């Protein structure tokens, strides 16, 4: 039975929606579990870091074949600027990612309604961190400027390493292990960069669940624990950080990489400064063995 013809962008947006939804179901879900458990019986900071990383891994496996599994507007923007990703797809991808995060957060909100009501019946800042990030995770005295810098740095690390792990010329993970290693990157960022601003490092991951919480009882969702408008920071800072990370990879690493196939050809001919440089024909390349 033949499939109906649909524009490719439809499938790509569906993949970004589904992959981001999986990411948020695990990420926001684990925070809800920890925040509503008694005395940390059902998890702690490490379980949060691991579940977010596994959520990224599983989300990438879901979406990679159709869309490349960006799952993050900061990654999408950086790919458009530095990797030739189509600019006309940036907004559709961003909308799909944000909607996926929004729907996933609504699912978590509905599933954890009773437990959230038991620990925070007024839906205050005490459990707002389940859905979106706050400076100092809502408890520490961290300034807006420190939180902003933190998000720029954390997202720059993420995008730099995503580019490093997906560049065909940079000895990337093989045998479809890329999503797993990228998940480990998120685990590491959570364990090293989670104190100042909760490591959103993804505008869709923060804004989608923030709106979901705003619509379901968290009247202060757009503000931080001090009453300042905060929703913009986990959007703007990661977008800047993604560009910083992409630029660093391009100019520190990518511009110095060479095509492995060209390296093989150079080794076979002796040197690029050899016969071809003086107009003489190149010798036949030495064939590689069929198996190693």
Helix and strand arrangement:
Layout: H1 8-36, H2 45-67, H3 73-82, H4 90-111, H5 113-119, H6 125-128, H7 144-166, H8 178-192, H9 203-214, H10 233-252, H11 260-269
Helix pairs in contact: 1-2, 1-4, 2-8, 3-4, 3-10, 4-9, 7-8, 7-10, 9-10
Whole-number mean pLDDT: 90
Beta percentage is under 5%
Spans of at least 5 consecutive residues whose pLDDT stays below 50 are: 271-292
Task: Please give the largest β-sheet.
Answer: none
Total count of helical runs of at least 4 residues: 11
In terms of structural class, how would the helical and strand content be classed? mainly alpha
Whole-Å distance between the termini? 41 Å
**Helix-strand topology string:** HHHHHHHHHHH
The rough form would be described as: globular
Helix content percent band: 55-70%
Radius of gyration: 22 Å
- Compute the number of strand runs: 0
């Amino acid at each position: 039975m033949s499939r109906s013809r649909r524009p490719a962008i439809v499938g790509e947006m569906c993949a970004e929606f589904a992959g981001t939804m999986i990411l948020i179901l695990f990420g926001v879900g684990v925070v809800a579990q920890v925040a509503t458990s008694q005395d940390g019986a059902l998890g702690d900071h490490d379980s949060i870091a691991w579940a977010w990383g596994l959520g990224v891994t599983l989300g990438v496996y879901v979406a990679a074949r159709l869309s490349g599994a960006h799952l993050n507007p900061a990654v999408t923007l950086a790919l458009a600027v530095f990797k030739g990703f189509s600019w006309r797809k940036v907004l559709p991808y961003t909308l799909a990612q944000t909607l996926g995060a929004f729907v996933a957060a609504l699912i978590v909100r509905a599933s954890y309604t009773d437990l959230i009501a038991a620990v925070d019946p007024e839906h205050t800042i005490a459990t707002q961190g389940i859905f979106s990030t706050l400076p100092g995770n809502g408890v520490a005295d961290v300034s807006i400027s420190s939180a902003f810098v933190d998000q720029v740095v954390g997202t720059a690390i993420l995008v730099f390493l995503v580019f490093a792990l997906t560049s065909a010329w940079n000895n990337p993970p093989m045998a479809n292990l890329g999503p797993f290693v990228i998940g480990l990157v998120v685990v590491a960022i959570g364990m090293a960069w989670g104190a100042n601003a909760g490591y959103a490092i993804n505008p869709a991951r923060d804004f989608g669940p923030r709106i979901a919480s705003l619509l379901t009882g968290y009247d202060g969702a757009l503000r931080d624990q001090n009453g300042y408008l905060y929703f913009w920071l986990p959007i703007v800072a990661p977008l800047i950080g993604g560009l910083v990370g992409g630029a660093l990879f391009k100019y520190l690493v990518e511009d110095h990489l060479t095509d492995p196939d060209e390296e093989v050809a150079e080794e076979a001919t002796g040197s690029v400064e050899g016969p071809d440089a003086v107009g003489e024909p190149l010798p036949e390349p030495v064939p590689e063995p069929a198996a190693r």
